[in-house]
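Sample log: UDP-N-acetylmuramoylalanine--D-glutamate ligase.
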Amino acid sequence: MSKLNPDGMAAQKLVVLGGGESGVGAALLGQAKGFDVFVSDKGPLLDNYRAVLRDAGIPFEEGHHTEARILQADEVVKSPGIPEKVPLVQQLKAKGIPVISEIELAARYTRAKLIGITGSNGKTTTTLLIYHLLKTAGLNVGLAGNIGDSFARQVIDDTFDYYVLELSSFQLDDMYQTRLHTAILLNITPDHLDRYEYNFQHYVNSKFRILQNMQPQDNFIYFRENPAIADELAKRSPDVNRLPVSLEQAVNPGGYLQNGRLIAGYGEQAFNLDMAELPLKGPHNAINMLSAILAAQSVGVNSEAIAEGLGTFKNAAHRLEPTGTVNGVQFINDSKATNVDSVFYALASMEVPTIWIAGGLDKGNDYSQLDRLVRQKVKALICLGKDNRKLTEYFTGIVPLVYETQDMKDAVAKGLAWAQPGDVVLLSPACASFDLFRNYEDRGNQFKEAVQRLVDSR
C-alpha cells in the first residue's frame, strides 16, 4: 500500500542510495517533507546510522540493492561515493528517474544564503575558516557538505541564516537547481580522473558546475593564477560578480598578497593585515585566507571581526599540522597532501632545510613541477610506500639522500637522524595512503604517534 502525504495523495517515492552521513540526513529530510523514503546501501551500515533509521521508522536494506524496488522511485538521492557509471545508476537514468545529491535535495528546503567552496586542494581549510569567521562575527551559520553534519538533516529545522558548504566534484555532479550566493573556486589540478574518463576537461567542467544558477549580483571568488580556471573563464565569461584572488598583482575588487600582507577589498570594505601575525602559513594558505576574507566581506563581516577570526583559527588535522619538536627538529604532518599540487604548496611554505617523507599509492603523479622547490628546500627524501620506484628513480640525483621504508616509526626515526636542529621533517606524501594505511587520517595519526614517542623518550 502506498504511503499518503498530508493531502491524501500518494507520496512520492524517494530512494536514498548510501546510508552514511549524507544519506541518512537525506532520508530524514525526505520523511519530514512527506516522501515515502527507502534507504539502500550495498555495504553494511554503521551502528549509529542503523539506529537512527530504525528510530525514525524509515525502511532500509544493507549488504545489497533490491533493484526492482529502487527502480520504482520517483527520485533518487545518491551518495557522492557511488560513481555515475555503475549499472544501477545507469538504469535509473535510462528510465528517466532523477538522480540528485543530498546537497540538491537540502537546498530546496532552506531559506538560508549558501556559500559553497570547491577546488582540488584547500577546500576543507577554506570552508572551516569561512565558517569560523562568520561564527566569531556573531552570524547564525551552519557548516555542511563534504564536512561536518549532514546539510539535509540541518535543513529539517532550517534555523541558520547562512550555510558554508564544502563541495566535492562528485557532489557538484548531482546538483542541478541549487543556487549559491557566494561560490569559491580555489584551484583545479588533475585529481580523481578515474571518475572522469581520464579526461581533465570533464573534471574542469565538474568544478565549474559551482557557478550554475548564480545571478549577476552573486559573488564568484577564484584564484586567478590557476591555469585551468583562467582558461575556462576565458571560454565561459559567466555573468557574476567576480572577486579574483592573486599572489602576483593588486586586484580591486578582490584580494591579493603584497609584501607579506593580505589585502582584500569588496564594496566599501577594505582589509589589510600582515600574514606573519596569523597561524596559517605559506602561499597556498594566502589563497585560502584571501578567499575566506572576501567571502566574509560579501556577507557584511567587518575588518576588525575578520582579523580577530583569522588570529584564532585552528586548522583541521593533517594539513601542515605542527606535531612536535625533538632536539630542535620540528615535525609537520601534512598527510592530507595526496597529490603533487598539495606538496608544491607545502614545500613552498618551508623556510628551513627539510627532510621530506613521501610515497604511497601513486595516482599518475608528474613530479617535474616540484623540481625547483625540491632542489631549494629538501636535503633528504624518505620514501614510505610498498612501491617507491617512481619516487626513487625521479629524485635520485636531485636529492642528496634517499631512503626507502614501509614502516612509519622507521621513517620518523630516520628523519630525526638526518636532521639538524632547526630543520623540519615534513610528511607530505603526494600519494594516496591505501597501500600501507587505512586512509590519510590513519597515516597522519601514525606519524603523530611516532613523533610523540620520540618526544616522550627525551
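Observation: The chain has a mean pLDDT of 93.
Observation: Residues 13-100 form a domain with the Rossmann fold fold (CATH 3.40.50.720).
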